[in-house]
Amino acid sequence: MFRAALLLSSVAVAGLSACSDPAPAPATEATGQPEERPEVVVAPITKAESIDAGLKVGERVPLGTTLLTKGDETTLAEILENGPAVLVFTRSVEWCPYCQTQLKSINSIVDDLKERGYGLYGLTYDSPDQQDRFSKNQMLQYKMLSDQQSSVIDGFGLRDPQYTEGRAAGVPYASVFAIDQNGKILAKSVSGDFKKRPTNEQILALIDSI
């Protein structure tokens, strides 16, 4: 089980491309046609880019800290009553295109994780309304959790210390945690580079290694 946190680096797969339509680009002076913007690509994480941050495999997560969903409050203790969970920490559904790409991509492995006995959850510091708008626009099949005060992020020890002010203050490292029904961490991946995240194949390989 404890080797699971290391396995992620051995899975070689392609990067993920953004799948939403980009915002309209400004027109060029010469042609009057919109400029083409490059796609946002999330590269696979490697062993060298995985950092030893946050709670360790075998430790227990903060079960009682309040999280928000659209129109409701919950805790990790309540979430885990439904079974083991894969918790994906990302920066923002509003302004981080790498996070948006990842959150849209993992929508395709909801059933794969369910077959393995895990529920999938995304967590950001955005408001429930912002998350709900993103979830509906992208037709997400998993629940988003709002940690507006970064209390759960801090409880996991995942706050990115390079951001002390501005809109990014309080964001977590891009991370994936597998948690059993009792709140014990079974496996994890924490990226030191927000542009690089575990691919879907890497997430499934992490779960299969437990």
Features:
210 residues, alpha/beta, Glutaredoxin, five-stranded mixed sheet
Secondary-structure element pattern, one letter each:
HEEEEHEHHEHEHEEEH
Uncertain residue segments: 1-37
SS strand fraction: 15-25%
CATH architecture field = 3-Layer(aba) Sandwich
Please state the structural category: alpha/beta
Quick one: overall form? globular
In brief:
The chain has 210 residues and is an alpha/beta fold. Helices cover 23% and strands 19% of the residues. The strands form three sheets. The protein has a five-stranded mixed sheet.
Describe it:
With 210 residues, the protein is α/β, with parallel strands linked by helices. The chain is globular, with a radius of gyration of 17 Å. The protein has a single domain (4-16, 44-208), classed as Glutaredoxin. It has helices at residues 4-7, 76-80, 97-105, 110-115, 128-138, 151-155, 200-208, and strands at residues 16-17, 41-44, 67-69, 72-74, 85-89, 119-124, 143-146, 175-179, 185-190, 196-197.
